Amino acid sequence: FLAVEALGIRPDYIVLSKALGGGLAKISALLVRRGRYRDEFDLQHTSTYAEDDHSCSIALKALELTDDSVLAACRDKGGRLLAGLRRLAASFPGVIADVRGRGLMIALEFARLPCSPSFLLRFLDSQEDLAHVITGYLLNVHRIRVAPTLSDRFTLRLEPSALIGEPDIDRFLSAIADVCGLLARGDALGLTRFLAGGTPADATDIAPACSEARFAAHDEPLFLRRQRQAPTTKVGWLFHLVDADDLLSLEPSFAALSFGEREDYLARFASHAAPVVMGAVDVRSATGAEVRVYPILLPFTSRWVKRRIDARRFRLPQALVQRGVDLAHRLDCRTVALGQYTSIATIDGTRLASRGMGVTTGNSFAVALAIQAIEHAHRETGRKAASSVLVVAGAAGNIGRACAELLAPRYRRTVLLGSDRPGSHQRLRTLAGIIPNAVATTDPAAVGEGNVVVAALNAVDAPLGAERFAPGAIVCDLSVPAGLPTGVAAARPDLLVIRGGIVALPHGEDLGIVGFPLPRGQTYGCMAEAMLLGFEGIHDAAFTGSLSAARVATVAAMAARHGFRLADYKRADVLGHGRREEAHAVAG
After folding, report:
1. Which end of the chain is more exposed for a tag (fewer CB within 10 A), N or C?
2. Would you say 485 and 460 are in contact if contact means Cβ atoms under 8 Å apart?
3. Residues 205-259 pLDDT 10s
4. Which of 333, 357, 337, 356 is nearest to 348 (CA)?
5. 551 and 348 in contact (C-beta within 8 Å)?
6. Is 443 left (phi over 0), alpha (psi -120 to 50) or beta?
7. 70-196: CATH topology
8. Do 269 and 251 form a contact (C-beta atoms < 8 A)?
9. pTM score, two decimals?
10. Where are the alpha helices (DSSP H) in 382-517?
11. Which contacts of 328-331 are long-range, i.e. CB under 8 A and separated by 24 or more positions?
12. Could you tell me which of 315, 322, 280, 314 has the C-alpha nearest to residue 298?
């Protein structure tokens, strides 16, 4: 009846619990060896559930039914199950680490997969979540319910009923063989595809607890080698997936899912996934100074976070960004930059605990680069700013407002374009009141008035189509993601479509980020700003919150000192690069 008998152990105390209730009642019992028992314990021990005649009656009946024939059947069925699992362990030695147990109480331990060909499986392994995904697969695909043990997150506890039949044992072994095959092939899509169905349940938007001891590196062996020797100064850059197509850079097999299925899949993962360190690269200044840069990927898309920002549901996005900041702190970073929507979701970094690091939105350098790009465009076209009309689309935002304040004095007239949301419209009117010759509007047709258009939008659907622009306009897109759809420059060859946020590194280092859409030696302004602050030894919160002309000028001066300059400023579709580069071109 008790496993200790077969092990030859004579226990002093035995606790019986769930099995005693026959699966119907909650009851437990403590058996104490007579030589150990003290009669005074009867007077000291109390129990909330003592004298429960109903549960005790069920327990007595369960003991009555557990006769020698039932115990023999458990041994026989357990032996068959153990033998089948051990055959699978022999067939998949890299997948199953151990099979152990007696009777129908069996443990199935899966091996760690740090060298799996699948990034997603390596990620789940690093998070100790692989067994939970396996149990989800078994339930959703094979209709078999099991669970990991509490003591080992890679071990499944198998506790079937004594009434289990041989067909059910065969079905279970077949299901485990299926799982082993998926893991051995590195088939992350096959194992996790069930997550792409239905609507993600995220109504509360509360981030689950995430152990600080765990994070993932995209290439863990390379990361660990790089960690053995690093410059004293380290900085981090937080970024996220532009859209569901970015998942294909990490897991090409997910091309079998539709774009919408990939979005749903990522939405299910977002709140549970830890940040991923996508590399570790050392970048040198023109002065000879050096910093280690850690690009840290957060597991959500632009559409996912934009939807929450629009609904004023900031809690979960801010919690996920904070995880990235905390990881940068654990990597001993002095400064961390907020790329893409991570800045917007945290109210320009003001809702984050900095952990003693410097935090920057990266917006100062982005604005400085945009101004340089526009100045370059004026020189190339010969068009004079003083006789031109400037349109700033997204002027109510942090970057748009700064561009308007710094550029407007150079232009004959400035149009401040924003959304019709109450807060946005009020900010536009306030800004128009302090900028000479400026008007505020929410009419998208106003884009057509501009000889120069700066787009600093937070939309995910590229709202500025080719038909909106005036003939021969200069268009600088700083939006997150791109505010112009693919092919605008091809459809309107009269336009000069430029990008202002791309930096050429002084020594042309390869950042080594999988799926990074820029050529070797180039990066985004927000990442570069973290490097510059690292070179300068600045690590405070002075570069969060609202932008100022003084801050933009300060960062521009830093860039000049360290040899960081504007990269080729034309848009990707002008240069003939791929669609994904264009979509990422404003990720900083």
Report:
1. N
2. no
3. 555 544 444 567 888 888 888 888 888 999 999 999 988 999 999 999 999 999 9
4. 337
5. no
6. beta
7. Aspartate Aminotransferase, domain 1 (3.90.1150)
8. no
9. 0.82
10. 398-407, 422-434, 488-491
11. 328/235, 328/236, 328/238, 328/294, 328/296, 328/357, 329/355, 329/356, 329/357, 330/212, 330/215, 331/234, 331/236, 331/277, 331/294
12. 322
CA dist list (Å): 321 to 79, 151, 234, 314, 325: 49, 30, 19, 11, 6
Q: Is 89 left (phi over 0), alpha (psi -120 to 50) or beta?
A: alpha
The span from the CA of 217 to the CA of 219, in Å, is: 5
DSSP 69-115: HHHHHHHHHHHHHHHHHHHHHHH-TTTEEEEEEETTEEEEEEPP-TT
Structure tokens at 518: 């820029």
Nearest to residue 340, comparing CAs of 460, 247, 263, 239? 239
CA 266 vs CA 23, 31, 188, 308: distances in Å: 38, 50, 13, 15
Let me know: does 410 contact 433? Beta carbons within 8 Å. no
Please give the Cα distance from 511 to 518 (Å, whole number).
10
Measure the CA–CA gap between 435 and 139, rounded to whole angstroms.
Answer: 62
pLDDT (tens digit, 9 = 90+) per residue, 98-134? 999 999 999 999 999 988 999 999 999 988 999 999 9
pLDDT at residue 225 in the model: 84
- What pLDDT digit, counting tens, does each position of 163-194 carry? 999 999 999 999 999 999 999 999 999 999 98
Instruction: Quickly list H helices, 382-516.
Output: 398-407, 422-434, 488-491
Q: How far is CA 389 from the centre of its chain?
A: 41
Contact assessment for residue 306 and residue 242, using Cβ atoms and an 8 Å cutoff: no
Domain coordinates in residue numbering, the chain: 3-66, 70-196, 216-365+505-584
For residue 588 the two structure tokens come to 């900083």
Residue with tokens 């068009």: 383
Beta bridge partners of 31: 14
Nearest to 327 by CA among 253, 234, 201, 255: 234
Angle of the 549-562 helix axis to the 363-381 helix axis, nearest 10 = 80
